[in-house]
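Issue 218. Parser rejects a valid record. Input:
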Amino acid sequence: MKVDIPLVLFCISLAVRLVAVYLTQFDGLYGQDSFAYFDYALALRQALAAGELPPPFFWPIGYPLLVALVSLFTGAQPLAGQLSSVLAGAAIAPLVYLLVRQYRPEAHVGGIIAGLLAATAAQLTLSSISVMADTTALFWATLSAWLMARYGQRLSARWLAAAAAAIALATLTRWVYGLLLIPWGVAAWLAWRQAGYSRRQMAGAATTAVAIGLVLLALHSAADLARATPSYTGDLQVYSWRPANVFQKELVNADGRFNYEYATGYFYARPAFHPAYLFPLLAPFWLLGLWALRRQPPALAALLVGWILIIYLFLAGVPWQNWRFPLSFFPPLLVLVGLGFDWAWQRLSPRWRPLLLATCALALVGSAAWAVRDVGRFAAWANERKATAVTIAAALPANATLIAFDLTATMQHYTAVDTHEIFNLTETDLADILAPSASSGTAVYLLLNPDNIHSQWAGKSPERNFTWLQTHAELTPITTYGSLVLYRVESERLGD
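Output the parser choked on:
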């Protein structure tokens, strides 16, 4: 009986993620971005049900739209977002296998190894159980790469159309994948040139692909026609890119000032040999995979190498360091590992094959063990924050108002405390919050990390508002929750 390897890999990957959710009891919500995605998905669902246009949002709405649709079956709960991420993340493993086989049909074992790595890698597993757009966007991008690889070998218009639609959906889920239009375009041009296409044929094929992308973009952003300012482009407005950031450890961005451990260029190169992505034993295989690409058609080589290079060069120049971001070029690394293993398997003496298999088996065990470590630690941290929020709520009076930073969204979702985000408040807002407490005795509290406010957020809204409260009210520390300090806010000095 023939075994359906892609289906088996999907089931293994899905099982890994479901077991992780069950054992950690993590619901996928953990930070302001995660909560924002979930809240918007519910608002989008409500708007669409009422026949209204999608409301504005900071990020593109590809992922929230999917969550809104899934919530029709799961109900309006975090499970809708988590299930969307789980299914998308699980589907990457079979796609990686298919990509390896697309490059080398004989690379059966190499494809399985690459697929199993996708199923067990720590960061991909962690992102797969989180309510975030990462794995959904990565699924669309990986699907598009496989479709482009098929197109590069067959030049069938249906594969190009499907690849264009998939990369458009990836871009409308996370803008960074729009960069892949560059290597995709180069790969298509090389395939056309090798096939002897005329300029007219090239223009016709390119027009088809661009038209599909523009139609999806227009559908995504149609609601902006009724708004004075464009929405869904918050990332594009706050991001910057400087070549000098490649060598910088101290960076300033919209989230404040950061002193990182590594230079940005090195930080984003680490997934090539870090256990959370590729177990170090596998580094030689992706190098061999690069070597093996020299025998591939130029279009296929450009597709894989271009994916890694364009995303890496972009990330290395941005003023952020986030361990999630390298996921955007993780699948092509896995494909290189599979191709590199196949190269070694075919060319080394058969007596070395047991050693190759043992090395990969050890790497897979190490990758899975690292995933248990990382996912367990992260879920414990997220669950502890929720427990802290519940503890704080129990300690506050029933009618208390809380001004918070860092734990704000967690307080808003898991407690009934009237909680305000200090980042979003103005001095007028603060005065309005304190005024009722002065007249009616309503208790007002402040929860934040003062050291972080003064270091990371110097000169920005959180520090300015904290300073205003220190000037216009009496802040009395009550207790601490880790690095967070809970203050009682007395408003006697409001009129000073």
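Fixed in the parser; the record now loads. Residues 353-395 form the longest helix (43 residues).
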